[in-house]
Structure formats: structure tokens, C-alpha cells
Amino acid sequence: MRNEKRKIVVDLLYCIGATGLMNIVLQFVVYPLVNHQVGGSDFGDMLFWIGVVSIFAPSFGMAANNTRLVFPEREKTSNRDYMVIVSFFAGVSMLAVMILCIFQGSGITKSVALMYIMLVSVFRNYSTVEYRLNLNYKRQFVFYFILSVGYMLGAFVCMVTNSWFGTFIIGETIAVLYVALTGEIYRIKEKNTFYRKDVGRNSLVLAAAYLLTNLMLNLDRIVLRYGVGNEAVSQYYVLSLLGKTIAIIGGPLSSVIIGYISKDNYHLNKKEFSKIIMAMIAVGSIFLAVTSIITPIYIKVLYPNLYAGIKRLNVIVNSAQILYFLTTLLLVIVLTECDAKWQLRIQISYTGLFLVTAIVFTIQGGLKGFAVASLISNIFYFFETTFVGMKFAEATIK
């Protein structure tokens, strides 16, 4: 038991370290370099398009990824079952980018580059299942390290070509190639199995839920860009950077949680679920205190021209991001306790509330209105998920 607990802690550290490394490289090395090289206008354009990729790629890639982990008959499925689904998801994502490029009048070169970035990003998000299936989080850390190195190489290419596309083309491609060359999930030897339709159906349900989640996570870039202006996008980006970085940690933590819970088909009872809630609130409070202290310092040093106009929104924005982080973890636990349709229901209600409040509040109050809408919606999101979790945990009391 002691060795297993130690392994869980080590796995958590590997996961947090991997995702943390990637985000540190992106936020504090790659993005500043790109911003310095291409200028504020093109940097804002990059943030918008990466926001679009961040809506589709993790939603579809992680839907297939998590479905493979929790599918009851996963040992009887084949790599081909999932490759068909991931390829379909990638095609849908590329079509969405193409339509948006046509709508915005983007050139052929830009459109092709963006479609490729979307394609390879979907597969990159699916690729981590290679390590999650075997609980090999040390190898997953290597995967993210290679991804981070790829991003940095791409950033230096950007400095030569004066174009940001290479940053993500190189980074994402190197990571997928690493898994394809060293792993097993892309080796298609078996035929499709009887379970392909069930796998596809479950993946679609999760993808719909994740699309809503990631739309909400990147909603600021869309609403603020068209509702206020590019400067508001920049302001909210720097203000929410640390909070979103912590929120992103929810991904690797979720990987470990779902990996261990699904491994033995374990179900939590109400008392255990309550303890998890209390622990998450305690951790969230610590994160909120840290981000609220560091964010003003970080902005004043790196973005002094934005500091005066947004410092009053510090606690509001970070509170919303921390609540989102906590709810991301809770949703994974809820997924192991009940049918996937409950996650979709939670996401639909959260999305509806956030969309309405974000649009209305932004029209009325600009950047501050959007920040308040985000906080209100994430408070609702957390308590709604807690209620559903309690409902099903109570049904499995031992």
C-alpha cells in the first residue's frame, strides 16, 4: 500500500512537471519571442487561432483518449478502432478551420498551415493514451519534454521566417512522431472490432462535453475580440495567465485520477467524495492566494502598460480560473461514477449560463463585465458538479 501511494505521488509529480514544463516554455519563452518578432497585431492573431485549435484539438483528442481508458472492454478493442475515430475527429476539426479561414478571407498558405496545425494537434492530444494505459507517466514526461523542445525550435524558426506557424507545426509534429516511432497505439495490425461503434458513440458524447468545456476556456478570446477589442484580449490574457496555467494542471491530474480509479473499477462512497471536495477547496484556496499575489507583480514587470487598467480585476479573474481547475478534477471523478451523458448535461448548462452572462455582461461592463460573468458561471459549474457527484457517490455507499 505504501509503495502504491508513493507511486501515485511520483506519477502526479511527473504529470504536473510535464504539463508545467510545456506551459512555462510556451508562456514565458515561446510567446514572448513570437510577440517580439511578429509584433502585437500578429501576436493577437496567433492567440485567436491557437484559441480555436485549443477548442477542437483537446476536445476530440482527449475524448478518444479517455474513452480508451474507461471503456469496459478496452482490452478487446484494437488500435484501428480508435484511429478511425481520431481521423474522423481530425477531419471535422480541419473543416471547421477551413470554414473560418474562408469567412475571414485568409490566404491559401495561412489556411493550409492552420489546417495542418489542427490536424496534428488532435493526434497529439490522443497520443498520451500510450502512457496512460500502462500508467507510465515517466515516459509521458519525456513526451512533453520533446514537445517543449519542439516549440522552442519552432520559435527560433519564427525569428528567421517572421511567421508564427512554424512554432506549432514543428512542436506538435515532433511529439506525434515520437509516439508513432516508439509506441504501440499507431501500429495498426488488427482489424476493427465489434466494439468500434460503442467506442465511437462514447467518444462523441465525451467530445461534445469537452467542446463545451474548451469553448468556455477560450471564450474570452472570441467575446472580447468582437465585443470590446484586441486590447481587451491582451489584457485578459495576461491577467488570467497564471490562473489558466494552474487550470491546465487539471489535465494531468485528471489523467492520474482516472487511470487509477478505472484500473480496478473502484467506486467512491459519499464520505470519500466529501473528503475529496474539502481537499480540493483547501488546495484551491492556496492556489488563489499565490496567483493573486504573483499576478500583479508579473504584469507590472512584463506588461507595465497594461497594469493600471486591470489590477482591480486580479482576484475576480483568478478565482474563476481556480474554480474551473477544481471542477475539471471533479468532472473526471464524476465520469467514473456515472454515465457520460451526465457530464454532457453539466457542460450544456454551464455553457448556456456562461454564454448568456458573458455576452450580456460584456456589452454592459466591458472587460470587467466579462470577468464577473466568468466568476458567476464557474461558481455554478463547481456546485452543479459537486451535486451530481454526491448523488452518485451516495448510491455506491459500501
What's the quick description here?
The chain folds into 2 domains: 1-217, no CATH class; 228-398, no CATH class. Helices cover 87% and strands 0% of the residues.
Structural account:
By secondary structure, the chain is an all-alpha fold. It has 2 domains: 217 residues, no CATH class; 171 residues, no CATH class. Helices cover 87% and strands 0% of the residues. It has 14 helices and no strands. Helix 10 runs parallel beside helix 13.
List descriptors.
398 residues; mainly alpha; 2 domains
Instruction: Give the overall shape, derived from the CA principal axes.
Output: globular
Q: By helix and strand content, what is the structural category?
A: mainly alpha
In total, the number of strands is 0
How much helix is in the residues?
over 70%
| Number of discrete domains | 2
Q: In angstroms, what is the radius of gyration? A: 21 Å
Q: What's the order of the H and E elements? A: HHHHHHHHHHHHHH
Major sheet characteristics = none
* Percentage of β-strand residues: under 5%
The end-to-end span amounts to 20 Å
Average pLDDT confidence is 83
Low-confidence stretches: none
Total DSSP helices: 14
Could you give the topology of this structure?
Layout lengths: L1 H37 L1 H31 L8 H26 L3 H20 L1 H4 L4 H25 L3 H18 L13 H22 L1 H9 L2 H34 L6 H33 L1 H7 L3 H24 L2 H55 L4
Helix pairs in contact: 1-2, 1-6, 1-10, 2-3, 2-4, 2-8, 2-10, 3-4, 4-7, 6-7, 8-14, 9-10, 9-14, 10-11, 10-13, 11-12, 11-13, 11-14, 13-14
